[in-house]
Inverse folding.
């Protein structure tokens, strides 16, 4: 049977050569190589659950008066979109479960991409010949952020509507073209009736299609270039050692797919997320306090909160405050990320291809810069919920904002320098160990004493 | 069969039970927790079984791939380059045609941008004006107009122009301040009859409704980014990212005792934008 399939395919497509090599392709066994896979499998879960949700969602701003199964909202004016999400959540069996799995999967999706990106950065995996794939990966991150935000905004509840209002104002703040951009994306002055339909189409077709395309390119390039690998016995710049795709790696990876799906299911089943029936429908004159976005928007929310209260007047024109924190900052941030491989090559004058990965301590300055940028983003993210913290700690928000503004300037520098120093000492210690050449192995003897013995092959841990 | 094989088989069997639980929970309307438990067990046990299978029932194996796929050898590279250049040269022999072709493509590209205009309707007065007009009565969210005698000193209310309840850009906060609190600017002295002042509820930072009020200090707070506005001093920003005061609506009391606007806001409300002077 198998023989017949293989032969039939090869007769028609000449697949035998590719199949022979592909099935025995080496996949390095390091836990950190699973991060990208987790992101991929979150995407699979998102497609599966999202397809179901899409059949019940009504992307319409048509105002209706609710008289469904949730008594607390009876008689309230709401959009058909919000009402359809209420029905999906409260009346459709398994609807709430799948909606919550979908939302959790989106959060983990962006998280997995982010951690995966950190792994690539700190091990220098973006270096030649993988600069292009670093760029495709960043495009994937941006698409994932877009998919997350558009999806979060669909239910037209009070919380997400407030988020949209902020997004609109941030777009509006762009010099020269801001007004046109905002109207272009939202379909008119906020709140426009066309907005939900556009968000829906973007969320279920445009962004997923782009995501699939970019993932295909991302994985295609990895396949072609083969994986990187950490240093180790027998591993060189000219080979890659790992489990064969078939059957070892394929089995493990399918197991991971189910494990990811299981964990997302458990989150969706037992950890409530975005209970929109408690928020109520969006009404531009109402707002909830506290109001926090999903985690991956937190750094932008924090940036808007800490941002300078500038309102620049230039030749009878205005550049308002949200531009600096909401547009300029992410623009600079992503530009830096995009050009990093080329920037680093400029700094190190190292244009050689690298197939062996760095340990983060191998390049202390890069690790320090990365840690500083991470610290910056984390401070911003925490500042995104400063009102909640102020309430818990019992100090005024105004003082906390000032504290965060100081931390935003000081902490990244401190963290960067400390990390740099720590990495340098790690590296020095490892080099010293390597130069010492031998390590002593100590073992218990049968009589209870210790035996010392020089260990062979103890160069690098 | 060994214990390992039995273990893996058990995992798969548990997964079957999970699927059954999920189906039963669905059929019996048991709610998301039971459905989720079933699906979790089904997926989790399946994943566990497969991972155990991969780890214990398939012999570990290491393969070595040699990186010889790229870069190509030197001849291959120069031939590829030559092929590309050959084609370009062929095309470029008719340099004039190339230019016309590029012009045609450019024209098509520009023409294709035109429909974008339809995606951005009516960029007009919406950013500059609200629905407030001279003589527009202040009404509550339920449409009931506000009399000068309605509000106790120290209270606050969200109001709209009569006929435009829930209009996003017209939403306005009406406050009644105790005598002596308001430090009104000279040109605004007759905007606040009997201690009534009205400010746009749309935050000048990012457009959220300025929904919180600290009555003890006469401060308005935006819950989105924690901008604080000082009501007593023309709602100027005193903390947070907002840079501009909340625009003030000129009020008057009509002969029948109802509150009404003297005019629209005298400046664009809400967040800033480029064309705003």
């Amino acid at each position: 049977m198998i023989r017949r399939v293989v032969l039939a395919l090869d007769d028609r497509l000449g697949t035998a050569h590719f199949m022979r090599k592909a099935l025995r392709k080496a996949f390095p066994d390091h836990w950190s190589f699973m991060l990208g896979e987790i992101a991929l499998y979150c995407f699979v879960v998102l497609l599966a659950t999202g397809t179901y949700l899409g059949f019940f969602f009504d992307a319409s701003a048509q105002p209706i008066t609710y008289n469904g199964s949730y008594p607390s909202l009876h008689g309230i004016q709401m959009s058909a979109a919000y009402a359809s999400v209420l029905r999906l959540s409260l009346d459709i069996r398994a609807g709430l479960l799948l909606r919550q799995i979908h939302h959790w999967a989106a959060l983990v999706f962006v998280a997995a991409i982010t951690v995966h990106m950190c792994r690539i950065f700190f091990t220098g995996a973006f270096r030649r010949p993988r600069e292009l794939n670093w760029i495709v990966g960043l495009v994937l991150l941006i698409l994932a952020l877009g998919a997350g935000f558009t999806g979060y905004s669909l239910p037209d509840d009070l919380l997400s509507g407030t988020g949209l209002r902020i997004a609109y104002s941030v777009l509006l703040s762009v010099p020269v073209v801001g007004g046109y951009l905002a109207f272009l994306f939202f379909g008119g002055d906020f709140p426009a009736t066309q907005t939900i339909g556009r968000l829906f189409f973007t969320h279920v077709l445009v962004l997923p299609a782009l995501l699939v395309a970019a993932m295909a390119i991302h994985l295609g390039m990895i396949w072609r270039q083969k994986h990187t690998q950490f240093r180790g016995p027998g591993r060189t710049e000219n080979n890659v050692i790992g489990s064969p795709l078939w059957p070892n790696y394929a089995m493990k990876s399918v197991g991971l797919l189910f494990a990811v799906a299981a964990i997302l299911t458990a989150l969706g089943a037992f950890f409530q997320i975005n209970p929109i029936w408690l928020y109520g429908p969006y009404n531009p004159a109402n707002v909830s306090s506290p109001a926090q976005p999903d985690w991956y928007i937190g750094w932008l929310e924090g940036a808007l909160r800490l941002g300078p209260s500038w309102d620049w007047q230039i030749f009878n024109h205005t550049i308002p405050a949200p531009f600096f924190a909401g547009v300029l900052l992410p623009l600079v941030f992503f530009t830096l990320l995009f050009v990093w491989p080329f920037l680093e090559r400029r700094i190190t004058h190292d244009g050689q291809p690298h197939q062996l990965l760095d340990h983060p301590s191998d390049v202390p300055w890069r690790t320090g810069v990365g840690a500083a940028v991470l610290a910056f983003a984390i401070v911003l993210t925490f500042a995104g919920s400063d009102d909640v913290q102020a309430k818990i700690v019992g100090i005024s928000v105004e003082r906390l904002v000032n504290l965060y503004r100081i931390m935003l300037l000081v902490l990244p520098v401190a963290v960067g320098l400390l990390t740099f120093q720590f990495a340098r000492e790690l590296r020095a210690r490892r080099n010293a160990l390597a130069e010492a050449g031998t390590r002593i192995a100590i073992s218990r003897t049968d009589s209870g004493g210790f035996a010392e013995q020089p260990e062979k092959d103890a160069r690098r841990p | 069969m060994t214990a390992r094989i039995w273990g893996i088989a058990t995992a798969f069997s548990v997964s079957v039970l999970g699927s059954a639980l999920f189906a039963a929970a669905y059929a019996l309307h048991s709610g998301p927790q039971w459905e989720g438990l079933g699906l979790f067990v089904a997926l989790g046990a399946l994943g566990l079984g497969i991972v155990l299978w991969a780890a214990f029932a398939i012999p570990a194996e290491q393969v070595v791939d040699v990186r010889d796929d790229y870069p190509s050898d030197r001849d291959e590279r120069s031939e590829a380059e030559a092929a590309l250049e050959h084609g370009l040269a062929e095309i470029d022999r008719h340099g004039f045609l190339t230019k016309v072709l590029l012009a045609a493509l450019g024209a098509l590209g520009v023409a294709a941008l035109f429909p974008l205009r339809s995606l951005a309707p009516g960029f007009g007065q919406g950013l500059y004006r609200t629905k407030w007009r001279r003589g527009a009565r202040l009404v509550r969210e339920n449409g009931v107009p506000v009399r000068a005698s309605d509000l106790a000193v120290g209270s606050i209310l969200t109001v709209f122009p009569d006929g435009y309840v829930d209009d996003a850009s017209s939403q306005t906060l009406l406050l009644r301040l105790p005598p002596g609190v308001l430090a009104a600017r000279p040109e605004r002295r007759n905007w606040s009859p009997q201690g009534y002042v009205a400010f746009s509820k749309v935050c000048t930072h990012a457009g959220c409704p300025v929904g919180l009020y600290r009555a003890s200090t006469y401060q308005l707070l935006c819950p989105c980014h924690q901008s604080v506005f000082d009501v007593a001093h023309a709602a100027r920003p005193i903390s947070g990212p907002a840079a501009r005061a909340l625009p003030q609506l000129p009020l008057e009391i009509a002969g029948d005792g109802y509150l009404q606007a003297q005019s629209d806001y005298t400046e664009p409300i809400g967040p800033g934008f480029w064309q705003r002077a």
Remarks:
- Residues 3-60+71-119 of chain B form one domain.
- Chain B is about 35% helix and 15% strand.
- Residues 5 and 57 of chain B are 7 Å apart (CA to CA).
- The two ends of chain B are 82 Å apart (CA to CA).
